[in-house]
Amino acid sequence: MELEGKVAVITGGGTGIGRATALLFAAEGASVIVAGRREGPLRETVDQIVRNGGRAGAVVADVTDASQARELIERSVELFGGIDILFNCAGVFVKDMASHEYSEEEWDRVLSTNLRGAFVCSKYAVPVLKSRGGGVIINCTSVSAHLAQCGQTPYNVSKAGLEMLSKCMARELGYANIRVNTICPSMTETDMAADAIARRGIDAIAGDHPIRRIGQPMDCAQAALYLASERASWVSGNSLFVDGGNTCL
User: Fold this and answer.
1) 3-state secondary structure of 72
2) What's the CA gap between 229 and 6, in Å, rounded?
3) Is residue 155 annotated as a catalytic residue, yes or no?
4) How far apart are CA 125 and CA 76, in angstroms?
5) Active-site residue among 102, 124, 155, 226?
6) What is the pTM of this model?
7) Four-way CATH pick for 7-248: 2.60.40.1220, 3.40.50.720, 3.40.30.10, 1.10.10.10
């Protein structure tokens, strides 16, 4: 098993990509802490891991609140003795409208979750990773970090900012044997993307991709597993596109 003896914290771990990654990491031997704002989905993830013979715990936390992010890290250490992997997967999407039509409140909501949330969780996790002799931070961004798109500017900006945060941290933390990378999914079939998928339809979205299907959460989970594992021990500051070839068009 690739993550035997490791402890992984996964924000947004109750649904979608976060849940798929939690299940996969646990199957690969990691003790997993899933975090999010809704207790129900977190408990469902934990219960499934435990039924499969894994080790997991749930922490209800809103990553936009720095004190809750700090408590998440502290509670994770209490549960399993440390942290080796942080996967910042919590995120929110936006309604389809022009940039100037977004309210300041909506702009702040998206940036607070997608960018600031990853920053504060990483901020409090880094000392713990250092105390373990190193570790891994993976940030879930998007192909939207690299493409100008109409109708979702706050989302694109938040993910582009997270790409740059990841690269800066990779340069800063390499000396401590902490690797920082991102995965960049294209449209993936999750609850968060359900409205966008309903508007266009799965077949139309699949047609945007050279590999003619929509992404699945496990596609991203497998990419996260690679980046978390020793197979990626000399990989840092990179963006791994999990996009069915979308960005090569």
Assistant:
1) helix
2) 10
3) yes
4) 10
5) 155
6) 0.95
7) 3.40.50.720
In the block, which residue shows the tokens 């989302």?
A: 155
What's the order of all strands across the beta sheet hosting 7-11?
A: 55-60, 31-36, 7-11, 85-88, 135-140, 178-185, 239-242
Tokens of 37: 């704002």
Pairing of the two strands 85-88 and 31-36: unpaired
Give CA–CA dist 61/53, Å, rounded.
Answer: 25
Question: In Å, what is the CA distance from 140 to each residue of 9, 158, 248?
Answer: 13, 11, 20
Instruction: Report the amino acid identity of residue 124.
Output: Y
Q: How far apart are CA 78 and CA 57, in angstroms?
A: 11
Distance CA 23, CA 13 (A): 9
- Per the CB < 8 A criterion, the answer to whether 108 and 156 are in contact is no
DSSP line for 147-179: S--TT-HHHHHHHHHHHHHHHHHHHHHGGGTEE
Q: How far apart are CA 145 and CA 157, in angstroms?
A: 7
pLDDT tens-digit map of 146-198: 999 999 999 999 999 999 999 999 999 999 999 999 999 998 988 887 787 88
